[in-house]
Amino acid sequence: MNTISPNSNRSSQPESSVTLFHRAITNGDICAVKTQLATGKIFQEYRESVIELFAGKPGSEKIIEVLLEHGKIGENCRDVAMKQAVSCGQQKVAKALIESGHPTERGGNQAFLSAVLFKQSAIVQLLLEHHSYTDEIRGQAVRKTCELENFALVPILLRKGPIPESDRNDALAMAATAGHYGAQQALLKESPLAESARLWEALTEENR
Fold first, then answer.
1. Sign of the torsion angle spanned by Cα atoms 44, 124, 63, 88
2. Which of 83, 96, 177, 180 is the most exposed place for a label (fewest CB within 10 A)?
3. Which one-letter DSSP state was computed for residue 65?
4. What is the pLDDT of residues 151-185, one digit of tens each?
5. Which H/E stretch holds residue 176?
6. Closest CA to 32 of 41, 40, 22
């Protein structure tokens, strides 16, 4: 008499779309990811959890792009993923997130300052291009850049226009203390104050 193992029916049952989707994500199998997304059984909440988890991982940009192309994600997910991408220097992921929809003002400001703190110049420029920040935060970023002595970033941050006088003065003092002529030049040149013209001429004369 033939007997049937208690587990035989269980093993013959097809795996769920979520299980197959998770396996495809883990293996980096883009085609399989697309196949599972096409079933319509991978809900937004699950896509968002994967985006947040993988945004900072090297080589994940293709999977993130596919997940973003499949449908909208919530603002909170975009902000969390941007934070992960910026802190890990994942420029392509940051670009994909921005192009899928601007982060919230709060999320954009956090990402912008994080990029400055982590000295991710390429991501800073990307955020500048898409205006993913407030002008007040840009002033703070200039000051923080000088604190970190990442002076090469100062002219880039100032291309979008003047910053608050208090931030400019603090940054100028730090650049002067460090003896960084290029940063001083950029800060004085962008100042809206008439006094800067005189200071600029004096500085130029001293460095001839």
1. negative
2. 177
3. H
4. 999 999 988 888 888 998 899 999 999 989 888 88
5. helix 165-178
6. 22
Is the torsion defined by CA of 130, 134, 136, 141 positive or negative? negative
Q: What is the 3-state secondary structure (H, E, C) of 34-55?
A: HHHHCCCCCCHHHHHHHHHHHC
Residues making up the chain, counted from first to last: 208
Q: Over the stretch 30-47, which tens digit does the pLDDT of each residue have?
A: 999 999 999 888 889 989
8 pLDDT tier (thresholds 50, 70, 90)? very low
**CB contact at 8 A, 70 and 37:** yes
In the chain, at which residue ranges do the beta strands (DSSP E only) sit? none
Q: Is-contact 14 49, C-beta < 8 A?
A: no
pLDDT for 188: 83
Residue with tokens 């029916």: 9
At which residue do the structure tokens 């319509």 appear? Answer: 40
pTM (two decimals)? 0.74
Structural domains for the chain: 17-133 (1.25.40.20), 134-208 (no CATH)
Burial class (CB in 10 A: 0-12, 13-18, 19+), 57: middle
Q: How far apart, in Å, do the first and last CA atoms of the chain sit?
A: 102
Report how far residue 82's alpha carbon sits from residue 19's, in angstroms, rounded to the nearest whole number. 26
